[in-house]
Structures are given as structure tokens and as C-alpha cells.
Amino acid sequence: MEGYEFIVSIVQSIVLRVWRALGVTVVRMFRGKIPGLLPPSRSKDKDLNVSFRLDQAEQAAAGLKALEPHLAPERTREEKEKFMELIELSPRAAILDRGRELENAVESFAQSAGMFPSRMSGLLDLTRELRNNELIDQAMSGLLDELRAVRNSAAQGRDMDISGKHALRFAALTDAAIRQLRVSGDATARLRNPPRDMQRSP
User: Which residue from 3, 7, 124, 141 has the least number of CB within 10 angstroms?
Assistant: First the structure.
């Protein structure tokens, strides 16, 4: 029996060495291909999701009506510089900052149209209400939905790899939406509250 156990131990040792050698050989053969065979990491998935959402938002923004430059002035140099400083500190924080400004612009537009949104409404509900009442078109509704998704991703994913490029794209798109909403809001307010000269009966 002792001789049998000795032989078994030798065989096991040989088999173990063969498997180790085989494993090393396989790793060397497929070393450059293994990363492509592994499932993408969570951070990469989130990055792809944010990029996809921004792509969709840019497509929606392309359907917005063109605005006259004097009706939709660009941000000042100081505002742009401050935003760039914020991006350098935290791209995620920059997205959240511009996202809050977007939500405020949507609330202001809703108020100018005669709606009275509460702080509990949120961007999703406001967008739905505005779209259902035909106060915004499909392009604006789609743009707001995609921007809201990006903002939420930034808010929920503290470990997410959001780049400065993402923040810049988001800022450009939110600026386009905000300018459109402000111009439309001013026009809607004038229709609801015409100047006193126009209110006088002839």
C-alpha cells in the first residue's frame, strides 16, 4: 500500500506540473487577446453610456430652431473661464452645476407659459407636462431627456470616469437648450401679457 501511495503522489506531482506549464503557455499565447475577451468594466460601460447619451442629445439639438444671435447672447468670457476652472477641479461637478441651471431654465419657461411647477416636479415631469401641452417640440423634449440622463448618471456615479470632454459637450448642449427656452419663454410671456398700449381698446 505504501508503494501504491508513493506512485500516486508522483503521478499527481507530474500532472500538477503539466497543468501549470500548460497554463503558462496559454497565457503567453493569448496575452494580447485576453482583455478583449473579458466583459467591459463598469466604468467603461458608464463612459459608453454617457457618450451615447451625448450623441443622442446632439442629434436632438440639431432639430432646434435657429435663433437670432441678438436674441440668444453667448456666455461672457468670465463665465466660460469659471466653468473651465470647475471642469479642471471636477468634470462631474461641472455637469451637475450646469444641470441645475438647465432645470431652473425649464422651470422659468413653464412659469412663463402659465404653469406653476413645484420643486418636487423635477425635470422629467416638467418635460412631460410641457410636451403634452405642446409647449415644446419633439426636438427639445428629446434633448431635455438625454441631458437629464447624463446629469443623473453624473449624480449617481461618484466613481464614474467622466472626462472634461464630456462636461464640455454637456455644457454646449445645455446652453443651446437654455437659450432656446429663454427666447421661447420671453415670446410666450409677451403673448400672455401684451404691452399696455396693445391692451387698450381702440
Answer: 3
